[in-house]
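Limitations
The structure tokens in this dataset are predictions for the assembled complex, not deposited experimental models. Users should treat interface geometry with appropriate caution, especially where small molecules or nucleic acid strands are included. An illustrative entry is reproduced here so readers can see what is and is not provided.
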Amino acid sequence: MSNRVLMKGNEAIAEAAIRAGCRHYFGYPITPQTEIMHYMALRMPEVNGVMVQAESEVAAINMVYGAAAAGARVMTTSSSPGISLKQEGFSYIAGAELPAVVVNIVRAGPGLGGILPAQGDYFQATKGGGHGDYRNVVLAPASVQELYELTVEAFNIADRYRVLTMILGDGTLGQMMEPVLFRDEEPVESFDKSWATTGTQGRREHNTVQSIYIEPDALERLNSNLQAKYRRIAEREVRVETVNCDGAEIILTAFGTCSRICKNVIRQAAEIGIKVGLVRPITLWPFPDQAIAAAAGQPSVKALLDIELNAGQMVEDVRLAVNGTRPVHFHGRTGGNLPTQQEILDKIQVLARS
Amino acid sequence: MEEKVFSRTRGLTGKPFHYCPGCTHGIIHRLIAETLSEMDILDVTIGVSPVGCTYNNYEYFACDMVQAAHGRAPAVATGIKRVHPDSMVFTYQGDGDLAAIGTAEIVHAAARGEKICTFFVNNAVYGMTSGQMAPTTLLGQKTTTSPLGRSAAVQGYPINVSEMLATLQGAVYIERVAVNSVRNINRAKQAIRKAFKVQQANLGFAMVEILSTCPTNWGKDPVSALKWIDEAMVKQYPLGVFRGQEIEVGD
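Predicted assembly:
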């Protein structure tokens, strides 16, 4: 039997989670990601797992908190408005140092917005969203194959550092169908979870999971430990794809769906004699500053052009990475619209001539 | 020969309680802890702490404990119980936590028939944040946010949580008790025991509502506070079994 299967992005996420050993899923329906719940509802019983349809996104993330505290590999999925509701829970998960995987299949906002794809949740995903000093690891797949592979990896990262790891997709990735090549065996790592609340079973002192520390020194210690952990993550977990950057005149930066459009633009630009490269962050946090700075610092580079499905969010991190050495321009679409290749090419031509 | 007739239960860690004089949280803690010990389930129990005066009861109970966000304890308990279905899981929640911000979570945990126990401590006031009106504040009761007394016209009516949850099929055992007299304390302990027995038998959701004192925020001395439960609270919140009368749990 071939391991190559034609799958919808949302279904690939769900199957990946199960293959990664996730047996507990808590969700609340919201377009454009509900197929994940549908898939879980059918598949979880087959693997003796649990799918609970919660009464709200708030309840779902707190079920995740409980299941993670109990030592399980656990996931919830939602889309932008639902992810906003989960932010309080994200902060508690960070404070209690629990491993959990969250998927945001982003739709257009603000407010109830629309159900079409967008990347307007970049700030929320990478800069916090909930209260307090914390970070979530944010992975940005750009294909159904990557949705599968990065979802498996998200569970390993979550367990490795006891952090919340988010898959930041968008409505296009969630809804599109592409072939997925499944591995025979997943690179699922096992981790010590002696901290989990499983019942003492008479074998140890009682464990507690908490995010409250009334004593300022104790809370500062927690914060220092969290920041040290985030520095370790930033050193070890950056993932980035660079395409055609060597000797390029113009460097595009884009993630997710936008990066696919940009790859086509690279070919079109070459046909009219402009060498264009692309830096695609796969981890949005930790951000690949060094790869962007290296690409931008080449003598051949005239400018960078950042393409996003928002009004300009990741571009701020690109500018910090470039640190003034090159001009950084932005082109974005909102409301659920995608930029056309021609739109991007027109911008490139103006920048290449200047 | 001397006979030891009473000792601290091993269900408690021994850390001194921080509660105000005359507050009955300490009694409720002891009853739960004694039950865990007597039923020999302490080692398989995971408790969920609320937000409020008892936010840190994870320091008092000698079982595994998870501290939850305000009102979300039933959702957190759902997550724990679904991971460890053979464990015993309880939430300990106050009236602000359970009957205001956490209303959705408690209703749906009960409706799903989650195999957990909830101990709902009703003292008709927000204790920790200094005496604001709770959903369970009585009509006419003065609080820091209803200084003229709770008025039905302005603040609406108290919520009788036990009666409300008793309408749900998944809630198999619901009882309201009080801890303001020896007789009531003994009755409360029986109810707590029955709740854990219901969970042990996998029957469904069980909740014991416990009328409790808050002398500090009621502006009463401890003895008057105990009396006020009988004189005022029980009139709005009658004691008794609202669901699961027929369930026999045995010893």
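Some entries come with short summary sentences. For this one: Residues 4-236 of chain A form a domain with the Rossmann fold fold (CATH 3.40.50.970).
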